[in-house]
Amino acid sequence: MSTTTAATTAWQTGQGSQVSEETLGRIDKWWRAANYLSVGQIYLLDNPLLREPLTRDHVKPRLLGHWGTTPGLNFLYAHLNRAIAERSQSTIYVTGPGHGGPGLVASAYLDGTYSEVYSDITEDVEGMRRLFRQFSFPGGIPSHVAPETPGSIHEGGELGYALSHAYGAAFDNPDLLVAAVVGDGEAETGPLATSWHSNKFVNPAQDGVVLPILHLNGYKIANPTVLDRIGDDELRALMVGYGHKPYVFEGGYDTDEPMVEVHRRFAALLDEVLDEIAAIKARAAAGDLTRPAWPMIVFRTPKGWTGPDVIDGKKTTGSWRAHQVPLANARDTAEHLQVLEQWLESYGAADLFDATGRLDPDIRALAPSGDLRMSANPHANGGILLKDLRLPDFRDFAVDVPKPGGSISEAPRVLGEYLTEVIRRNPDNFRIFGPDETASNRLQAVYGVTDKQWNAELLGPEVDEHLARAGRVMEMLSEHQCQGWLEGYLLTGRHGLFTSYEAFIHIVDSMFNQHAKWLKVTNDIPWRRPIASLNYLLSSHVWRQDHNGFSHQDPGFIDHVVNKKAEVVRVYLPPDANTLLSTYDHCLRSRQYVNVVVSGKQPAPNFLTMEQAVAHCTRGLGIWEWAGSEAPDEEPDVVLAAAGDVPTLEVLAAVDILRRELPQLKVRVVNVVDLMRLQDAREHPHGLTDAEFDTIFTADRPIVFAYHGYPWLIHRLTYRRNGHANLHVRGYKEEGTTTTPFDMVMLNDLDRYHLVIDVIDHVHWLRASQAGLRQRMVDARLRAREYTRAHGEDLPEVRDWVWPDAQDLSDSGQVAATVATGGDNE
Predict the structure, then answer these.
(1) Contact, 387 vs 529, CB < 8 A?
(2) Largest Cα–Cα distance of the chain, in whole Å?
(3) Distance from the CA of 715 to the CA of which of 173, 196, 351, 519 falls in 20 to 30 A?
């Protein structure tokens, strides 16, 4: 595949004449050939061109796939081929009904791309046999429009994301047309229903164009679809209400209408739509950025169009029975086998493929050439177009840390200053996505160089702040759209990040699943080039949602992410501002990962200088010698470990108590930034070897681990380690409410006093001798709880605590309260 970009194309109007009879005939033959290849993929194991009578041995033993949506997808693909070739219009094809995989594979085979990327699938009888055999077959390819399919950026196996992916692809691609087919079943999902609003976020000059095509074939697996049963007037009104100008097409229901007339009608409609788009783009180029009523097509055709009308005496084509495999017993019953043979013969393959099995060159001529083929468009293999970000030196944004705990920052606010410069240097291939939370999550510094893109109504600066027709920040109160936009943006060769409240990132759990699976699969597809990583910044996290309460307290996205393949996922828990800067610079440089970074947004101490932070983040975890009390040549009595900013704070506060109360106790402090370092090196590329793990955590000493999330994840990551039996983890255990920050950690036994209790309980020689200290820690918890109930804030010894080496700065007023008592309400 070549690397020509779409920037050389322009938005052209049509020639103003009807499509010729010759071209209409070519479109019909392409459609028939694609349908033939699609049916063959679902059913045939051998005898691809029916050169001999069909037998049961020619039919696959397991019939898998989806026929019902496929002929409509093939029809649209054929007509788009004609328009692309005539207009030289760079176009990609996003298919929400991703179950129509055989159709997209067929078209990629017909235009030659498939054989270019898979040299064993040759353009002859043997290649066609292999094409058929591999589909939904062990060792072959999936039945969806999967990563293995050239031209795909959207598998569609899970419905709902076609339009959000399409708009993400269109952002900052001013010459790209994204033909986005929305299944009428898919249109019933919440994410898809919301994604119609994406047209309010498109700048008609700087962005490309999404052409939504609602594929209205009437049925899902076993039920009718809502949009097919509401009537044309109501459907039109719905689309107009979403801001579109709908064009309605119906074909295939009038059996007396010659097929050439059906093609003629649709070709004329498509030209009208594309001419209207060209006119909108021309007006935008002249400076008119008002939001147009973007055209969309309602494409109504029978389910399973061109398939057997009746099977076993029951209506099939035009009903839900055509959805998957209409002839489920084609291998086992003579009647079904005969119907299958007649069905295949109805496409006239002998007129489409020559004696060697090669497509008739006249039919091939319908397809555009080179990168203009939708299956070969570089935007659908975004790594080809990916450029490295021009990144500033993150060290220039470092906060001063004269001593551990000697300064206070809101870590994401510091990151926002860095991202401001990232945006300044990358004005056309980097965006920030989030559900109305960019400022809430403290990244508002970016508004110094950009605005939020907004193409709905503007009310003026006295009301609207940082809204503009063009901007690098994309905010819509739908996590689904933010995720889908970002995925589409990344898959077409750009960079970005998604910032969200930690508890509500769960909304996109399933979307994350699909993207992580896509990355995993593409790692093993040589022609798929690596893309920029999907970067999350989760702030407003579980420990500082004390103001919003229990509903906002959930750190479980990390657990969900860690379920995915080790070569794809990374999880980072930087403890302060400088480590967050170092971590995020790494994430923005990375490829083919999902990077999850969790960082609190409230004022908190900084512990590491930038030089120390870089070394610490490079290691992924490390011993903080300045915090511990072990001698250089001695083993510790206990290891206190932390992963996360609030756990780090509580561990250090606990160590402060231990150093004062038990000076003879040898304490080692370990901080973990890269969570996957805890896993075995044989299970994750970032993992430690057993020897490395034992060196840091010891093999036989108690380990008290304060963790940001659910404690069992740490056990899961370390269950094979020698010292696992000595590991005692504190974390979130589903206890929360609207309360003070310290009361929140006490509810989950993560507080400093409880950590001291844990040390006494697990260092055997302290159990009896330090009963008095243990009791004082219990009393301290009670006192802290009572103070919050009486005063509505945390007691001063907690609220104003700083690491003792920074005490002199605190006394002079240079160090503020460790934890702020306020917070945002959504």
Answers:
(1) no
(2) 98
(3) 519
Question: Phi then psi for 724, rounded to 5 degrees?
Answer: -60, -35
Distance, CA of 575 to CA of 443 (rounded, Å): 18
Whether 678 contacts 651, CB under 8 Å: no
Helix (H, G, I), strand (E, B) or coil at 435: coil
Tell me if 277 sits within 8 A of 176, measured CB to CB: no
- Nearest in space to 295 (alpha carbons), one of 275, 325, 273: 273
Beta bridge partners of 212: 180
Say how far apart CA 9 and CA 412 lie, in whole Å. 40
List all residues 6 or more positions away from 359 whose beta carbon is below 8 Å from its beta carbon: 33, 110, 123, 352, 353
CA-CA-CA-CA torsion sign (40, 42, 46, 52):
negative
Distance CA 152, CA 150 (A): 6
Token couple for 589:
């440089």
Q: Give me the residues of the chain with pLDDT under 50, please.
A: 1-8, 808-826
Dist CA 351 CA 348 (whole Å): 6
Q: Are 412 and 539 in contact (CB under 8 A)?
A: yes
The whole-angstrom separation of Cα 565 and Cα 567 is 6
- Close Cβ partners of 753 (under 8 Å, ≥ 6 residues apart): 654, 657, 746, 777, 778, 780, 781, 784
Taking the CA atoms of residue 718, residue 721, residue 722 and residue 724 in that order, the dihedral angle to the nearest 10 degrees is 10
Among residues 674, 656, 671, 634, which one has the least CA distance to residue 755? 656
- Cα–Cα distance for residue pair 760/754, rounded to 1 Å: 10
Half-sphere exposure of 110 toward its Cβ, with a 13 Å CA cutoff?
Answer: 33
**Spatial CA neighbour of 435 closest among 503, 510, 493:** 503
Q: Tokens at residue 99, please?
A: 């179950």
Q: Which amino acid is at 304?
A: G
Query: At 639, which helix (H) or strand (E)?
Result: strand 638-643
> Which residues, in sequence order, are bridge partners of residue 593?
none
What's the 3-state SS for 47-89?
CCCCCCCCCHHHECCCCCCCCCCHHHHHHHHHHHHHHHHHHCC
> Is the CB of residue 584 less than 8 Å from the CB of residue 653?
no
Write the DSSP assignment of 210-278 as a string of letters: EEEEEEE-SB-SSSB-GGGGS-HHHHHHHHHHTTEEEEEEE-SS-TTS-HHHHHHHHHHHHHHHHHHHH
Give the single-character DSSP code of 542: G
Q: Compute the distance between CA of residue 33 and CA of residue 105 in angstroms, rounded to an integer.
A: 12
Q: Phi, psi at residue 655, to the nearest 5°?
A: -65, -40
Contacts of 658 by beta carbon, 8 Å cutoff, 6+ apart: 629, 665, 667, 756, 759
Task: Sketch out the chain's domains with CATH numbers.
Answer: 6-380 (3.40.50.970), 394-598 (3.40.50.970), 620-794 (3.40.50.920)
- Model-level pTM greater than 0.85? yes
Looking at residue 91, its pLDDT comes to 98
Q: Are 487 and 154 in contact (CB under 8 A)?
A: no
Distance CA 142, CA 136 (A): 5
574 near 673, Cβ under 8 Å?
A: yes
